[in-house]
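Reply to dn_fold:

You asked what the input looked like. This is it:
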Amino acid sequence: MHHHNHYYGHSHILARYAGLDDRHPPRLRGYLQHGWNVADGYNPTHEFFDGAVRYVWSPRIAERGYALGRRNYTVVGAPWLYLQRLEPELGFLEDPETNRKPVEREGTLWFLFHGWEGGKIEGDHKRLIDEIRETEDGPVTFSLYYTEYDRPEIRNAYLDAGFEVISFGRRGFSYLGTDTEFLYKQLTAMRRHKRVAGNRLATAILYGAAAGCEIAVYGDPMMMEGEDPRFGGYARVQRLWPDLIGKDIDQRVAQQITREELGARYLLTPAEVRRTMFDGSNE
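and this is what came back:
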């Protein structure tokens, strides 16, 4: 199984949904899309073995892949949506074990565009802070991926601005360091906020819409060193998804686009996940 399938605990979520061992999930037969992007869900340098199945979230994503000359797509829906089926109450209750009192959503969960192990982001954090203060009503919780959380100059800029700063952990790399609770923690946080915002349209924004939050995209989109331009970069995002960019967007349209991009209509049953995705786990 390619180590990308472990990112964010995706294979663990799917194994749990399928009734399999989610601590040590069986091998997936192909490559699972681990994030949303402007193309087919994979980075332009990702190498596939011949005949590999590409498990993607939606037909729209597969269509973008076909346009690039790629093949062998199987639509399965986003693991995020399977997690929501597994955890219908997570985050909505103060304490599901002892206290059934519902949580009242408040404030904004704000996601900074993040780098990765091979590239750092650069941008004007002070200007972004000023714009967030001018825009958001109520408390702001700032989410940093570990690549920025571990940079004191970035983390402290938002702490000093008075924001609560959190990190959901690491996606892992080469089967090591995967926080399998990453998306569980993210889902909990989103279900406790009214609004999810960020400075780029990215995976977390779509997840926020799927979790019932209002969404917004604004501010300095920042740059990442080594960012590959072959799929058109962020300019293509702005051109193709203008309805999802802005401080005050049509949330009904956002919900519709989110359902299409995450493949809400194409989720499999547990038996179908076992048959379609997990090697040696056929019924």
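The longest strand covers residues 99-102.
Hope that clears it up.
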